[in-house]
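Table S5 (text form). Sequence records supplied for joint modeling of the two-component complex.
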Amino acid sequence: MSESTIQIALVLPDLLGTYGDFGNAVVLEKRMTWRGIKAEIVPINYGQPVPDSCDIYVVGGGEDTAQTLAVKHLREHPGLQRAVTKNAVVLGVCAGIQIFGESFTRADNVTHPGMGLIDSTSHAGGSRAIGEVLAEPANGLFEGVLSGFENHQGRTVLGPAARPLAHVKVGTGNDGSVEGAVQGRILCTYLHGPVLPRNPQIADLLIEWATGVKPAPLDLPAVTAMRAERVKAAS
Amino acid sequence: MNDSPARLPLRTAAAVKLGNLSSTLSQKMGLGAGGMIGGRVALKLDPQALGHLTQGRRVAVVTGTNGKTTSTMMLARAVGALGEVATNHSGANMPDGHVTALSKQPDAPYAVLECDEAYFPAVAGASNPSVAVILNLSRDQLDRVGEVRTIERSLRDAVDKLQNCTIIANCDDVMVTSAAWNASNVVWVATGTGWHHDSASCPRCGNPIRWQGEHWHCTGCDLSRPHPSWITADEAMITPEHRQLELRLTLPGKFNQANAVMAAAAAHAMGVPADEAVRRLRGVSNVSGRYRTIQRGGRSARLLLSKNPAGWSETLTVVKEANHPAVLVINAQEADGRDLSWLWDVPFERLQGRTVIASGERATDLAVRLTYAEVQHTIVPDPLKAIDQMPQGAVEVIANYTAFRDLNARAAADE
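The corresponding structure-token record, covering 650 residues in total, follows.
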């Protein structure tokens, strides 16, 4: 594969693809190809080794057993962890935020080791957080509100090395106050929707990290209209 | 024993009477179709109504993610060969709908009940079915129903508790096979359809499922594709006696062939000969408005219902052959699931090059999905107006649950 093609690894879509998060990879690919940046999606299925050579890794949400299997697979085939040391960009959604941390504890009180990529721990909350979320960007990381749909029982506590992605205005996020995590070039969120079709500014931030260049503006009227609708519905 | 249902206890009889009255009032006052309110009233007055109303009848319960309404209608038609059948074929598939249907036909010796998969344990537990049909299980309304594995687990527990019940199960679906695996009496049906995206790992032990052609097995435990007794072949089915019967269905698509074979196998378990079952279910053409064609100013619009990724994937296959313009209608009310993330699991890319209109209350969400699928489209939120903007001739209209229900009602009112 030529050096100039940005490879987007879609990590374990067969285990972590319950909530349409495959769409995040599509959005990254299209937003690059439409701007003349060569990009391709590389699906990595359960049972396959995880390459460390991709530029962006996209990890989605999954059911409990699938999540346990996924983390086992990713620890046995640590391509993603190696890629992180080489400055790869990583998007982790829902299960992603939990398995990237130091550990996650389920409702049955069993604690599973995470991948140790971000300074966080997760545990099961009392009730399932389901519904539309609105959050304001933290640390000036991006512009415009963060919009998405959450459906999770996990609650996540960030350590000092991880920064929140956003401050929750509507919904629950990590703990009712902050949402997501950013550490180096790893960006995590609880939000589906999927998150990148809803938040093109986050997609472009990841593209900027991967290519080293701020991408040219891309006006998609449908995206603007949908964001406005969702923000209004959640407010 | 099937001559007539058992006499109802006084409390149930009174509950049924008041329930029926509420249904009639609801219809007369134009409040609804009366499919649920009667049952709701009856269940309030007698929480055991479902158990009492099914006593003495031979009951079949039909559940699964997709094809419930169609399969129920097919099975009810087929079982009609044996006698009068009480059935809830308007999609009112929760206990209140069951009680309403059973109350309206108190003397029918047979009952064929479509059941929402989340209510299957309660309904199967109360109604002592002789046949339970499990069609398929895939992701659907994750925010309301929950994740597929949770549903599989609850069906499995319910099936394990059933006595003297024949389970009709789709062995091409890993989740269904797991749910029916321990049943003492199970008839396996090869439907040739299956959504594999939710079964990469075994629902029982978590190890990878390996597929080799139509065969599959778990790499960690003994769960594997059972040998089917009934097989769905191309436009035909093969019976346990290895006879091939032509299906010649009125309804389109491979998915309905699968529904038909599941219904035929279930009817057979109820005592209907296979030939008779197929002859009867073949005629099912209009399932609560689904598949019907409406005429609007020189346009013949065929109405198709699809509620989730597996359903949409099948429907996009049905509309593939003819390159007709398509109106896609999406709502996200509670009954649809509020989370539209699933739109990204539907292969809309297959519609590239067609005339497409995005419609429904969430037309803009769909428009974003179509944009990234590189499908040219316009947005017209009102589906009837969307049809009217299409060129004259055939139009395919695919809508999800409440979008379909509302469109169908408006189209019926216009006719």
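Note: The CA atoms of residues 200 and 208 of chain A lie 12 Å apart.
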